[in-house]
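Exam revision sheet. Question 4 asks you to relate a sequence to its structure. Input first:
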Amino acid sequence: MTDTGAQAQAQLSPEQYQQALKDTQPITFAGAAATVAASPSVGVVADPTLTDIILCDHSSTLTLFNHFFQAAQAGATNIMEMVLGALALDLRLHSQAEMQVLYPILAERLGDSGAAWAQRSLQEHAMVEQSIADCLALRADPTNEALVTRVKQMQQEFMAHQQEEEQIILPALVTALTPEELVSLATTFKAVKQTAPLLPQTPAVQAAMAAAAAAPADTDDVIVADKAGEQAAAREDVIRVED
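Answer key, structure tokens:
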């Protein structure tokens, strides 16, 4: 790539970059698919399911949080800034994929209780999206103690969401879907992340929450979901007390 080409790319706005990404997506995916199809390992390793992908995402996010706090403890502000950027992108892409893939299937296949779980999860995503925006705004001064405090709060929000999802929502989904459906959803989940907006999308999450709230819910199922929410809130309280 020439210096002129590099400068032109550097001047792209987030919106222009997003459009360019969408324009090149079919070619990129086609090339990747051809490479995988030609690989001799195809058929040896099972295709990942939706739960596999989500659990892997959660593990990666927790690893990035750990790197950030290790850098903060060492006073390595340059590493803090780098990791925070990676963490913001990691959470943003995961959030978008769950909104577009996971939560609609919860409402579709798990009925009113699934819709209630999706609504609560969207509320958690809204908090995380706002936390991403706040942390990025504080990133200009990595020495500011407020940044570390805000990232810690974001970690607590994420962990409460993660625990509820892994202990309650995903097990319920596995029992409701076939293995083939879970593999297909994993492919869609990964594809959504490829073109998801990179900047925090708090208004979009709030709009999804409003749409989910408009759907009627059965009282008994909502009670079940509310109990799950209470358990998650209790876990979050424990995390805060341990701090």
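Marking note for examiners. The radius of gyration is 20 Å.
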